[in-house]
Design goal:
Distance between the termini: 26 Å
Bound molecules: SN-glycerol-1-phosphate
Order of helices and strands: EHEHEEHEHHEHEHEHH
Oligomer: single chain
CATH class: Alpha Beta
Strand order of the largest sheet: 1-2-3-4-5-6-7-8
CATH superfamily: FMN-linked oxidoreductases
Radius of gyration: 16 Å
Number of domains: 1
Structural class: alpha/beta
Length: 228
């Protein structure tokens, strides 16, 4: 069974984006704790399977963050299942999960499944638009969301998602204060070692996504910043 409790750093790779073999190898062999495969748009069974097969050549743990029922590919070490806590469109809270269990319940290895309470804080992100994410007024509200996830729902992971934009450390710290049980993941807009360090000082695990595609050398530098 996968143990993410000690993870400090993960890369998130998008099946809908291209990455050259050499860079994929360097990312997978970078010393990061895990590769999370996930994206919001353009994720298909075929491109997810293709990316998984390439990552599987390396020893790094590989997790699928499920965003569409059409792209649930067997063979990952674990499956992270987001519940978008501030989705304005209620269909994004539990309806896909009900539909997924109707279809796939017989195939599920529950020990590989981990729910993530997602709080989407960048209103301009694709995920925010897709789920009609409700704005979060202030740090107090963010902390309350974290408590709902951690204390009420006992979700094992709380994911502060600023995808595409570097977040407000005070908001992340408020979330951390609310997550008493479970792990806090932070993702969004990390482009420098300093940002990686800043967020890693608050969150349990930081996730670096876009930078892999925009500036892979800089992405590699975030690993040493956090784990070095
Ligand atoms: C996206 O949280 C991850 O789901 C990482 O965000 O792509 O902005 O690094 P970035």
């Amino acid at each position: 069974m996968i143990d993410y409790s000690g993870w400090r750093h993960a890369f998130k790779l998008d099946p809908d984006k291209q990455i050259e073999e050499e860079w994929l190898e360097r990312i997978c062999e970078s010393g990061t704790d895990a590769i999370i495969v996930g994206g919001t748009l353009g994720v298909t069974y075929d491109n997810t399977l293709a990316l998984m097969a390439r990552i599987r050549r390396f020893a790094v743990p590989a997790v699928l963050e499920v965003s569409t029922l059409e792209a649930i590919v067997p063979g990952f070490d674990a499956y992270f299942i987001p519940l978008v806590l501030n989705a304005g469109d209620p269909d994004w809270i539990l309806q896909p999960h009900v539909a997924g269990l109707r279809r796939f319940a017989a195939y599920i290895h529950w020990e590989q499944i981990f729910a993530e309470g997602y709080l989407i804080l960048n209103p301009d992100s694709a995920a925010a638009r897709l789920t009609a994410a409700r704005p979060v007024a202030d740090a107090e509200e963010a902390r309350a969301y974290a408590r709902v996830a951690s204390k009420l729902c006992r979700l094992p992971i709380f994911y502060v998602e600023y995808s595409g934009r570097y977040g407000d450390p005070q908001m992340v710290a408020a979330c951390k204060a609310g997550v008493e049980e479970g792990r806090l993941f932070y993702g969004g807009g990390i482009t420098t070692p300093e940002q990686a360090r800043e967020m890693a000082a608050i969150a349990d695990t930081i996730v670096v996504g876009n930078l892999v595609y925009e500036d892979p050398e800089a992405a590699l530098a975030t690993v040493a910043a956090v784990k070095g």
